[in-house]
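User: I'm putting together a teaching handout on how multi-component assemblies are represented. Below are the sequence lines for each component of a complex, exactly as they appear in our records. Could you produce the 3D structure of the whole assembly as structure tokens, so the students can see both representations side by side? Please keep the chain order the same as the input.
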Amino acid sequence: MANIKYDISDISSLIPEGEMALGKDSLEKAKDTLVSKSGAGSDFLGWRDILGDPNDALLTDIIQTSETIREKADVLVCIGIGGSYLGSKAVLDALLPNFGNNGTEVIFLGHHLGGTYIKQLLAYLEGKEVYVNVISKSGTTLEPSVSFRIMMDWLKFNYPNPHERVIATTDPSKGALNLLIDDHGWKKYVIPPDVGGRFSVLTPVGLVPLAIGGIDVRSLFYGAVSAFEDYENGSDESSDKYALYRYLFHEQGYKIEALAHFEPSLHSIGGWWQQLFAESEGKDGKGVFPVCLQYTTDLHSVGQYLQEGQRTIFETFLVVNQAPSEDVEVPHSAQNLEGLNYTAGRSISYINDKAYLATRLAHKEGGVPVASIELANQSAETIGQMIYFFERAVALSAYMIGVNPFDQPGVEAYKKESS
Amino acid sequence: MANIKYDISDISSLIPEGEMALGKDSLEKAKDTLVSKSGAGSDFLGWRDILGDPNDALLTDIIQTSETIREKADVLVCIGIGGSYLGSKAVLDALLPNFGNNGTEVIFLGHHLGGTYIKQLLAYLEGKEVYVNVISKSGTTLEPSVSFRIMMDWLKFNYPNPHERVIATTDPSKGALNLLIDDHGWKKYVIPPDVGGRFSVLTPVGLVPLAIGGIDVRSLFYGAVSAFEDYENGSDESSDKYALYRYLFHEQGYKIEALAHFEPSLHSIGGWWQQLFAESEGKDGKGVFPVCLQYTTDLHSVGQYLQEGQRTIFETFLVVNQAPSEDVEVPHSAQNLEGLNYTAGRSISYINDKAYLATRLAHKEGGVPVASIELANQSAETIGQMIYFFERAVALSAYMIGVNPFDQPGVEAYKKESS
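Assistant: Of course. Below is the structure of the complete assembly, with chains in the same order as your input.
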């Protein structure tokens, strides 16, 4: 495969031999823990099992359902929060056009408590053909649940057969939604009980809204399957190496990892990655705080800090090697008043690549440890591989720092305070 | 005024007396340095002068220009990066509807090197009435300059009188754009030479695209003027206190400040704030790294880390006291399967307020220093006040940690590497 490379050429020399030996030892133990299902949270390893034993019939069912809905729906309102939102958002933004949509527009709801947003969304939906996908394992999470109440009222007011427009993605048997599914005959998809929210994008949680939004979910899914196989049999160690270096910088006292990309459509990948790492590692007073940066935009905001602020950040570039199929050339200027004719005839993505190399060098010289995750291209297949690359890495890095990668006891704290 | 309050009730006890005394001493010195124009970078204090001596004729001119363009334009393509982008984006997102626009759509360009974005933008613009505002002091910055070349070619190809559609915002006399302005008779607005990019949103840099986008820039501007007066005469010390506590937490070794808001439309304010603080403070190995969080969304991603990860973050909530004019109520459910009937009849913004209070309490109990900046409402006037609240605070806090708040030597590093 090797559609994803992890380039450590600028950081391998930063780790003393003794630390590296300890790190590699810790990595081997973490791999054993993961594979033998002997570690904390090992009831939640279903995100590996779904790739080890692909359910192709489920993919077919999702794609067929999505084709039916795509024929009818202007908008899919996708109701979910956390892992029931960030994965779909990430993949849609990475693979859909920057302007407009791919037939059926996917709009998210239930991912916050913005009253004005909801009010204005309902106005926007007037006169459109609207379908709803509500996604919640328990069916009781505050934000999606109140949003779903509002959305159901709206469907009932606007359509004669509102229940035909609802897809519920939830636990196989438990939770509040299952009772309603039976009553109303909603289309149902199952969230495997052993897959946590932040690892769920390759279950129906992500696959259903992605398919309805026009994504090739079969390529996405089997991309992840191929990564699973290569990492599992040890023929590709890039994910493991990423986990190793994160661990080593954590042990050296770095507080922040910046995931920096140069392609604007990858920005929501950063949001998904941020949850995956913050929620898996951030416990027991440990973990590196994950921050996503969009370059070159953010070179003109936090770039100054990266270059010369506190030395507490290590930086991982997420770059795409293949030039995009849609691109623009810089025109020649007879006057050349800005002195940029050296870029004339070059594509914007070519200049973007040069900016990446220049940034990496400048930050390295500024004392920032810099590494790169290189995607061969920005296809559904490669994005699927990237998803598993990060999922495996965070499981390993969390085990290495000694925390349970799969729980999130702190997320409940604000809910308890509010009840 | 007091449209902005800074609530320190949960952090004042965290600072030992001796540290507080030193901090207050440092604050007084920083205020003297700022007001007497005796500190590093004091050639760049024009962001204060424009508020101390408002140019109302300029506001009138901008508003008149914007009205003419709003009558004709479907889209304003606003070309700029860093401070020529983040301020306009922040205010537009805070004050415009969540869906659609307010007559003329403002689309940003030149804020990155996304070739696919540009290509797809040009396709999106086909058949629309398009005007362009290019914003650059030097006229030679890479990203906006190459984007402007492309955009000018597009204008020339599509319209008989392309130059009537261009507004250039630049230095009074220097720079590459001034030569073209003279040649083509473009409408020109001036960036005061003594105002740096990240402090420029209340100059034509921000005011022109904001007015064209449908923002009441007079209210915005005079909101800032009123804040300037109150902070200057000492009748309101909220901005100074924010600077003081940032400094105190910096000295205690905190690495990250999280600015957390609960209203989704405030998210781009966080992007503007991030540049303002990262670029002003992040030098000489100093500064707190600024991160913007959108709650409750991010409570389900980085919330776990805030609650239980490394204790290196202090948190500033940015909240709006007045309920929004557009809101939705939670309907009652006869079945009440999710057990949420206790929210029935409540507005979403009411529940959002409860979530804020619960989050603040939970994070406090988790050992995070928590403070709040409370905006009386989300009007143009209050957003204007908030802009000056932060601008003054960062000038003071940067002087307190001993750096020049107004330069950005590290931003040039990646440009040098690429040339």
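A couple of points students might notice: Chain A is about 45% helix and 15% strand. Chain A touches chain B through 119 residues (CB under 8 Å).
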